[in-house]
Amino acid sequence: MQATKEQKQLIHINTPNRDTKEEFVQWATDDNAKTSCNELSFDEANKILVQLNLTPHKPKNYAVFDKNNKQHRTILSLCIQNGFCKPHPKYGRVADLDALNTWMHSAKCPVQKPLKKMDAKEVSRIIGALSAMLKKKYK
Question: Domains of the chain: which residue ranges?
Answer without folding.
Answer: 5-51, 70-137
